[in-house]
User: Fold these one by one.
Assistant:
Number 1:
Amino acid sequence: MSVRILAPCPNSPNCVSTQAQDKGHAIAPFRYRKSRAEAKEALKEAVRSLPRTKLVEEDDSYLHYEFTSLLLRFVDDVEFLFDDETKTIHFRSASRTGYGDLGVNRQRMEEIRSLVEGKL
């Protein structure tokens, strides 16, 4: 099985990643205490509760969603990577087009963080 990694954020401010080193793009990962499978189900349930989301790829330790904005139908890619060794969920949320995102990607990931709080 190949080891997945999250792509680095571009220089534009429309991306956040738990693996980014700079303040503009960096965001804290999620931690989980349950089994990876249980944590993944809880995360999927939280994301399903959000509007205009589509799961496009999934394997044991990876989820890839597309989030579509309401008005202009912009698509953002959101990826989650489960690290069982450290019980950490790394993620990256990035706009496919444009430059700025008015903080939407960061806000979305903090919203998901609050939805999964205590459920992982």
Note: The longest helix spans residues 36-48.
Number 2:
Amino acid sequence: MIRSMTGYGIGRKAISLGRVTAEARSNNHRYLDISLKLPKKLLSLETRIKEMVKAHFSRGRFDISIEIDSEGKGQFKLEPNIEVAQMYVHVLETLKSKLKLTGEVSLDLISREKDVITAKEVEGDIDPSWEEISRVLLSCLEALEAMRRSEGKNLALDLEKRLKRIIHQMEEVKSRSPSVLEAYRKRLLERLAEMIDGMEIDRWRLHQEVAYFAERSDITEEVVRIESHLKQFGQMLESDEPIGRKMDFLLQELNREVNTISAKASDVIISQKVVEIKAELEKMREQIQNIE
């Protein structure tokens, strides 16, 4: 079954690093475009995460974020900020000198000031946690894929409905086509009869004119190609492969053949059916822009 490019998925699980939340959104895009939002400690996993997405999907714009709530499990180290400490000492010594104050600028005094001592999280090797993180991400991507399949099912139902309408309209065009030639022959005879006013009609010349019209207005080839394209499109609706681009190409070909029929047809009813078919093709084209 075809898949939409629109979807959402989320995965959550408590692992050794803390509680991991993976969230993914996807929308239609001509190619595969992946945007990641990761905490600093997971930046080294960017390539692996993108490879996982590529293994599941072929088209779409993906926005994926992973968050880790360490719940105080992270390790930290304290570091002195020598530059800031020197600035505090300089300022305090200046105040002491200018205002003729007493007392020493001590370590106890400086250590109380903001940013003199900072706490930094210790970044350890994230590789041992990749297997756990990948399982959370996989759960997220599977949820996303399930939604894309569900959306794809709805798209397939709509496309199938429109496909049946076009097939029905093409049957009417086919059945109407032979009568167009006969109607032209009758109109030609009537006009000739009016023009020659009782004189004998040149049957051979009439036959030539009708044959020329039949050749110029014959839509058999176009009808055969359209029927073939419609059959292929129906088969694509059952495909589990990414077929959005193929569908788009096929609809372009269908539209081209229908335009040719429109140019050849000298019949009001056929022209009306062509307009209806083109309207359905345009609606189908809008829908397939969101098919993977």
Note: The radius of gyration is 37 Å.
Number 3:
Amino acid sequence: MIEEPKSAVDLESLITQGGDKRIEILSELGTNKYFVNPADYQGLLNRGSCTCSALNEETEAILHEAMEREIHQLYRMIRIGLKKLLNFPGEDRFDVFLAPSGSDLTYYPILFSQLLHPDKEILSLVSCPEELGSGTIKAAKGQYFMSQNQFGESVQEEGQLFDSGIIETKSFPARAENGEINDHRTAISRYVKDIDDRAMIGYLVVGSKSGIENDIKVVTDTKKDILWVVDLCQFRNRKILINDLLDKGCAVMITGSKFYQSPPFCGALLVPKALSRKLESVKDIDFAPYQRLFSQNDIPPSLPQLRSRFQPFENRGLAMRWVCALHEMREFDRLPHEDTGGLIRDWFELCTSEINAKDNLELMPNQDQTNDSIISFRAKYDERYLTPEEMKELFKLVVTSRHQGFKKFARVFIGQPVIYGDKAFLRIALGSYNVRRLLKTGIDFHNDRHLIFLINKLVPDAVSSTH
């Protein structure tokens, strides 16, 4: 089992517990696998909020206050806070299921499907698989994506949740060979047209790693009984979209560790009340696989029968990460959308222009179809694109070295490479704290210009280091 931090001020231990191996600090690096130590934020310029974020002065202070609260108070505060921020006044449209990460959320629809259709095999329809969280595809297949669960127990990674293969998965790639975004609406509709013998789960995405947004009209166009789950884990959306999706009967996956820049990871599934009510009567299914994933605190109190099937467990690390995210959500929500949206558009236009002007960088196609707060680009050298291995080396050179030329910063973090086929691209991104700081201190994009200059300059070094 996971131990409490030895000291109340041991933030590193506190915010890196209660999850899988991805959040662990590796002794040989002093960081996690993404080359970030969430507690070591001084002098770090974050333009990788789509992957991994560190604390900041505000969230560190918030955590010290939250340490004094009982764990049940924190979980209650998280659910109330999400409902207050995401419902419209006077409404209560959803229940909140919690999980250690966005990838863990993917298991909930499988549980729901078994509860609703215990005698049917499951077909998982997954869009943009190469641009989702690293464990999402494995989870959608009914496999464990992790080697350690939130309870600190060892799990057989890629092992099956169930002895018999009751889950089939159909994937719909994000991009074509040339990098252009595929038409998922048409492809999914055609595929499910004649399927009637299985319980179907449709995993859509609005905001993939590069900001791709599925055409959600597929939900209303497809006249099939499908449990639609929309991945908003990047969480770069206004609450009007969330409520529209809930109205359509979709469950909505969110995280606090992408746009809202909480330390990784923390997930929540917003489940429409109509669907939640169907889960009140618990069927006689095999809960053992899910008991290795979720605890009582993860299940909403409004479902006591379902909640009783899971063990009591106090995941303080998950609660603390959500505390950070909720603070950031509240602060960002106070700002006029015209100000935040205008700054993000200005940043997008400047950075895309800078990238276009660089010899070794090239924007990914269809940037106009993605979210403006994420910019995706390839690197090229000697008349060819860098390989995935070379892109990983470029990423490492950027994020593990100290650099000169930034104002007030000596280190930088960007989005790690996204691999599709035999190609890869990098990302830079703005998160909510970045936007708030730029608005408060005066809009100055010097650091972003210098970052793009630096990445372009390091491309030859990445190529030579790999060979």
Note: The chain has two domains: 71-329, 337-466.
